[in-house]
Amino acid sequence: MSQALERVDFDLIASWVQPGERVLDLGCGDGSLLKRLIEERGAKGYGVELEGAEVLAAIANGINVIQGNLEQGLAGFDDGTFNHVVLSRTLQTVRHTERILGEMLRVGREAVVSFPNFAYWQNRLAVMGGRMPVSEDLPYEWFNTPNLRFFTLLDFEALCARMGLVIRERQVLDEAGRLVLEEPNFLGSLAVYRLGH
Amino acid sequence: MTKAGVGIVAAQRAHFSQPLALKGGSVLPAFDLVYETYGALNAAKSNAILVCHALSGNHHVAGCTADNLANIGWWDNIVGPGRPLDTDRFFVVGVNNLGGCHGSTGPASPNPATDKPWGADFPVVTVEDWVAAQARLADHLGIDAWAAVMGGSLGGMQALQWTLSFPDRIRHALVIAAAPKLSAENIAFNDVARQAILTDPDFHGGHFYEHGVRPLRGLRLARMLGHITYLSDDQMAEKFGRRLRAGAGSYGFDVEFEIESYLRYQGDKFAGVFDANTYLRMTKALDYFDPARDFDDDLVRALARARAKFLIIAFTTDWRFSPARSREIVHALVHNGQAVAYAEIDSAFGHDSFLMDEPHYHAVVDTYLQRIKL
Known about the structure:
The complex is a heterodimer.
Chain A: H1 3-16, E1 22-26, H2 32-41, E2 44-49, H3 52-60, E3 65-67, E4 82-88, H4 97-107, E5 108-116, H5 121-128, H6 153-163, E6 166-173, H7 184-187, E7 190-196
Parallel strand pairs in A: 1-2, 1-4, 2-3, 4-5
Antiparallel strand pairs in A: 5-7, 6-7
Chain B: E1 8-9, E2 12-16, E3 20-21, E4 27-28, E5 31-38, E6 48-52, E7 64-65, E8 91-95, H1 127-141, E9 148-152, H2 154-165, E10 172-176, H3 184-198, H4 216-230, H5 233-239, H6 258-273, H7 276-288, H8 299-303, E11 309-315, H9 323-335, E12 340-345, H10 359-370
């Protein structure tokens, strides 16, 4: 994914975090987002990461990283420990979708979720042309993608309604990282939500 | 075996003449600690790392001794120039704990009240007592605060206890293959080991020194049992399987399977060098360790006073101190908003993994220590 787009994604999340707040980043990788939230926003950050190499990179970045598998939930983290729980570009790779969303809002007061929009017009075009989409936000071939779930903004919002989750804010970006204000389910490539109870 | 990174080392001895009040209620009038150091203490005395030993360890952590170049320290693979505990940067200290049998004051030392070996009268010492004694050693070395205290298993418990006993004297705690307290199963294993020693006719109620014998059978059994719990089932299957020794198949009770041979060898080796009274006390220290006990079993509150930053490491095949036990520590620290990193290392070697030269594991320790500011 492009650096420009990643920054816009992180810009949004950073703007939602207040100094001193506690943030849990699920699938934190090398801890880039947390490092930024700590350095720029004065947040207290923790990350969960499964891959050993990423855990090592996060330790090199001085991040409070906890090695663990999101599919096993967030057992051990106490209720309401965090102000924000972030799941950035990872929900589509998680098998137990409802459980992880529920867990995020158990341990945190707010869930911040970003994911690629399968209904982005270029993705639709690719499928119309008979091929699975490959794009900035879906950068894999069908045979090597880590993504398990393919869903759209409308699908996600329907799930939120079913689970009784409140959408506090939604920002949608196109492939160039620009904010999309109209027809987001058609023109948006990446969606970022703030959810609460 | 790797070549000893720090070369030839020599143990030193420090005598402490101030009495030490022990958690169990008794007072040691004076004591000695034997220790080794590697690397140089910097001018600011800010680069010291204490390495705490586990059940059967001692102060000889790294290097080899002049009288026996093959006598390489028990954690040599992690200490030395260019190794994770880089002696070009850090001043590393290994110490034999109180109650030990490698030179520090212990059950075989003379009891000043009787001039005979302490034997059974040597008090039961706890992890808290060890840490208090280690703090005396830090004073002796002029170290106000350790850059880090590190240990595996029972050694990890000491690193954790340092953060609670002396929050201002430890900046980082590396707690490896440890647990916030033993499970009932763990205590059960320890007690079977103790019973093996206590019921050995040569134990003489702990006063065997004056009878000129040692409870070798009990100590041997204790070690064999312990050794089983330090390995993983997979590793045992791979290393020994059901292989028979050559010429076996006698339908008797001599050594037939390779695993039997291995355990008996380990038992004999250990019984030849270790003190039974020390073994009893080390296992009791393990059993008693429970920092949450004074806080209504609430580990979160128990750890709240720690000010150190933590690196917690567990190993996937360690069933004696499983990753779930390490995660209890991690989650209590997270709850308190304390600084912690946790790595769960894939390793086939069970509890003993913490002693292995596994590249990813050592990279985690190395990377963490490199970030420590001196």
